[in-house]
Design a protein that fits this description.
The complex is a heterodimer. Chain A is an all-beta fold. In chain A, the strands form 2 sheets. In chain A, strands 2, 4, 5, 6, 9, 10 and 11 form a 7-stranded mixed beta sheet that branches. A 4-stranded antiparallel beta sheet of chain A has the order 1-3-8-7, with no helix packed on it. In chain A, strand 5 and strand 6 form a beta hairpin. The radius of gyration of chain A is 13 Å and the shape is globular. Chain B starts with a strand and ends with a strand. In chain B, strand 4 and strand 5 form a beta hairpin. Chain B is mostly beta strands. In chain B, strands 2, 4, 5, 9, 10 and 11 form a 6-stranded mixed beta sheet that branches. Chain B has a 5-stranded antiparallel beta sheet with strand order 1-3-8-7-6, with no helix packed on it. Chain B is globular, with a radius of gyration of 14 Å. Classes of the chains: A mainly beta, B mainly beta. Chains A and B meet through strand 4 and strand 5 of A and strand 5 and strand 10 of B.
Chain lengths: 112, 113
């Protein structure tokens, strides 16, 4: 599991600020994903990427931006944070869409 | 898109008894059904998965069954142990460029000593 890391692990920010969550994997997996986890909602897909420079929206993409210039990195940016974006964010990677997804340790984000 | 319903939301069983968690999915095109275990404060980890061309799969005390006609799949844990206490998530995926994994809302499994 040390092959996928997230930073920061904890972040407190204020409404309206821009925040970037980082995700890095060392397995050269093609696919990378961002999920948010909220009590009562389970894990919801925000964005995913099939390869460098290829990204697609998931279930809850509004308010988020992603990029993937290198295979190993998949940053998630909240352009103008809102309180409703307070959540735990998990990054994951896999060899394919129907292969095991390996999750990072998560980032707990609080928006005041 | 895909919709996955998971029941129950909380399940309490005596140590040594069996536990069953059930999920239904909406899109008949889904072909991959993993189960993830998440301990408190930790990341989700895959415990078992099944593909649509298989009806049942076992791995020691854990088994998953799939009924494609009824569009439901279940996780069975036998001889439960304290370390089985966690939140379990089912998921479904259509693959092939669709929206990745769609997760159920989770089941909090409590093993009573």
């Amino acid at each position: 599991d040390a092959g996928i890391t997230q930073s920061p692990r904890y972040k407190i920010t204020e409404t309206g600020r821009q925040v970037t969550l980082m995700c890095h994997q060392t397995w050269s997996h093609s696919y990378m994903f961002w999920y948010r986890q909220d009590l009562g909602h389970g894990l919801r897909l925000i964005y995913y990427s099939a390869a460098a420079d290829i990204t697609d929206k998931g279930e809850v993409p509004d308010g988020y931006v992603v990029s993937r210039s290198k295979t190993e990195n998949f940053p998630l940016t909240l352009e103008s944070a809102t309180r409703s974006q307070t959540s735990v964010y998990f990054c994951a990677s896999s060899e394919g869409l129907v292969n095991e997804q390996f999750f990072g340790p998560g980032t707990r984000l609080t928006v005041l | 898109g895909e919709n996955v319903e998971q029941h129950p939301s909380t399940l309490s069983v005596q140590e040594g008894d069996s536990a069953v968690i059930k999920c239904t999915y909406s899109d008949s095109a889904s072909n991959y059904f993993p189960w993830y275990k998440q301990e408190l404060g930790k990341r989700p980890q895959l415990i078992i998965d099944i593909r649509s061309n298989v009806g049942e799969k076992k791995d020691q005390r854990i088994a998953v069954t799939l009924n494609k006609t009824a569009k439901h799949f279940s996780l069975h844990i036998t001889e439960t142990q304290p370390e089985d206490s966690a939140v379990y998530f089912c998921a479904a995926s259509m693959g092939g460029g669709a929206d990745g994994l769609t997760f159920g809302k989770g089941t909090h499994l409590i093993i009573q000593p």
